[in-house]
Amino acid sequence: MLDIKITKTTTPKTKAPDDQLGFGKVFSDHMFIIDYNEGQGWHDARIVPYGPLPMDPSAVVFHYAQECFEGLKAYRTAEDKIQLFRPDCNAKRMQNTQERLCLPVIPEDIFVDAVKALVEVEKDFVPHLDGSSLYIRPFTIATTAQLGVHAAHDAQFIIICSPSGAYYAAGLAPIKIYVEDTYTRAAPGGTGFIKCGGNYAASLLAGEIAEKRGYSQVLWLDGLEQKYVEEVGAMNIFFKIDGKVYTAYANDTDGTVLPGVTRRSVIELLEEWGYDVVIGKLAIETIMQASKEGKLEEVFGTGTAAVISPVKQLDYKTDVAYINDGEIGPLTQKIYDTMTGIQWGRLPDTKGWIVPV
Ligand code: COI
Predict the structure, then answer these.
(1) With a cut of 0.90, is the ipTM above it?
(2) What's the 71 CA to ligand 1 centre distance in angstroms?
(3) pTM (2 decimals)?
(4) Distance between CA atoms of 69 and 196, rounded to whole angstroms?
């Protein structure tokens, strides 16, 4: 077990009511920090009051974006137990990201022990309201003070927590998505498969434009031909066409799509339920054509923050696909019920996905 020095806040916050949390807007009282220095490795694990980070202005993170992050949640069950969903998957994905970004790699046991320890300290911040949870945001930043474009040799791994409700303001209501045909998100050999802030920074302009036009997010097409569907702003995406379920290829060590933990869990469930899950290239034209033929049955996004998010409309150039009369589809509802049932402890965890705190 990781040795963590705990310093409690002397000014605890007044907690926001569970029904007014929003997503990622309020933060708990403490944060976890561990330092990395070359020659010393990871050291000085601590939980301290939440607050500003003193940092050299020349730290590599500010100039060359050498940083990465993860997202997972702590759930409160009806029996008042607190539990995590597959934190080992987040730890491994952060390791893949760190390798790609030349950041020091955080051992899986440090990642998981730190998450558990911080959530234990912050357990009163885990909301009671159905559908709300404690969103946990681990991140790694390069702290070496240097302007030469070289990998840093010092870093910090930090975890903050945010009691949160639904990611989309409308909750489980189906959303409208714009198929982005100007900007691209990722190219082969790039960083599309890792969770680094730079991917999201580069996505903001398209997202802002789409939002002003009334869409919740953009659907990214591949960066080479802008032909094949990849992922949506903050989630992976699935299409049910003529009985089969399609989603883009996502791999831990290459590729252009983020290998989501929820995506992976949904694929496992669908396969167990006997669905034909096709993982690979799916052209946007094929989807729009399927819609015209009445074969585009359901579309839904998956993500830790977004959970399972039904899509009611896809706009591509001058074409529009309306899905399931604007209603959540039966398969999307079943996946939502099953995933949230396991996460909140309403359904048995037959797969060993749940880790108690
Ligand atoms: C998550 O689902 O945890 C994410 O990191 C997506 C987004 C909020 C950036």
Answers:
(1) yes
(2) 6
(3) 0.97
(4) 6
